Amino acid sequence: MASKPEIYVLDDVPHWAAQAEALTRDLRQRAVEEHGRFLLALSGGRTPELVYNRLTAVSSANEWTSTEFFFGDERCVPPDHPDSNYNLAEQALFRPLNIRQDHIHRMRGEHPNPDVAARDYEDELRSMTHTASGKWPHLDLVMLGVGNDGHTASLFPGTEALHERRRWVTVGHAPSGPTTRLTLTLGVINQATVVLFLANGESKAGIVKRILEPQQESDRLLPSALVRPERGRLMWLLDRPAAEKLTVSYTQSHPRLT
User: Fold this and answer.
1) Which residues contact 109 (CB under 8 A, 6 or more apart)?
2) Cα–Cα distance between 239 and 204 in angstroms, integer?
3) What CA dihedral angle connects 40, 164, 116 and 100, to 10 degrees?
């Protein structure tokens, strides 16, 4: 049975970022205690930058040595390009924390053949997660953002990537910006132990309501609405402006793991 969304609302962006940071660190600790390492897929876009800043401000020097960093999606641009998700993480997270390069698993957005890059990343993910053929990998935490059109990762409404059911990583197509992308598929995302949606600001209020309080079938078919972990937890972390149109009940406290 798919997970019911757990909705957490914080008063402002600083508290929102602090709670995202605290939850990430709590999940890291639990994963390392349970199986020796933490498998984390980072969100794309600008939303996670505030969370990265919090993580670098409060983390100890050796706290992330047992973490393997993956990406939910990547634009097909070089790694030093301003639009690169890896570039943002490198500047705001990896470099300040002195993360070893062999713990960073980036998608090769610069590859001349995106389909080959997608297959290569699937091979790397399979190798790192020790997943047998015919099975889906199990990541500890997948961070996701949500676009105003309801997309998440690089799974956009009406695109083939959204309907991929066999591959772990595929080529996505965006309506604007760098249009060709690499993205994890729903099959991978929905096997995670925790999927954490991060959204803030009043510009997100309308799409958040459509996803969490769907009124019609088109709402239920939005990419973000199709994220339904099969056995894991589905968490939405919002600030008050992003949650202003919600009428469903939500929690105004720290997300708890127990």
Assistant:
1) 74, 75, 76, 77, 78, 79, 81, 84, 86, 117, 182
2) 10
3) 0
The C-alpha atoms of residue 227 and residue 240 are separated, in whole angstroms, by: 22
- Quick one: CATH architecture of 10-226? 3-Layer(aba) Sandwich (3.40)
- Read off the amino acid at residue 21: E
Q: How many Å apart are CA 211 and CA 224, to the nearest integer? A: 7
Tokens of 76: 């097909």
Q: Could you tell me whether strands 169-173 and 180-184 are parallel, antiparallel, or unpaired per DSSP bridges?
A: antiparallel
Q: Which tens digits make up the pLDDT trace of 177-227? A: 899 999 999 999 999 999 999 999 999 999 999 999 999 999 999 999 999
Amino acid code (one letter) for 169: V
Q: Could you give the 3-state DSSP secondary structure of residue 236?
A: strand
Sort strands 73-75 and 233-239 into parallel, antiparallel or unpaired: unpaired
Beta bridge partners of 184: 169
Residue 247: burial class (beta carbons within 10 Å; 0-12, 13-18, 19+): exposed
Which stretches within the chain are classed as H helix?
13-35, 49-58, 85-89, 95-97, 114-129, 186-189, 205-212, 217-220
Neighbours of 180 (CB within 10 A): 14
Where do the structural domains in the chain lie, given as residue ranges? 10-226
pTM for the model? 0.96
pLDDT tens digits, 91-144: 999 999 999 999 999 999 999 999 999 999 999 999 999 998 889 999 999 999
Give, in order, the Cα–Cα distances in Å from 125 to each of 109, 135, 208.
Answer: 16, 12, 30
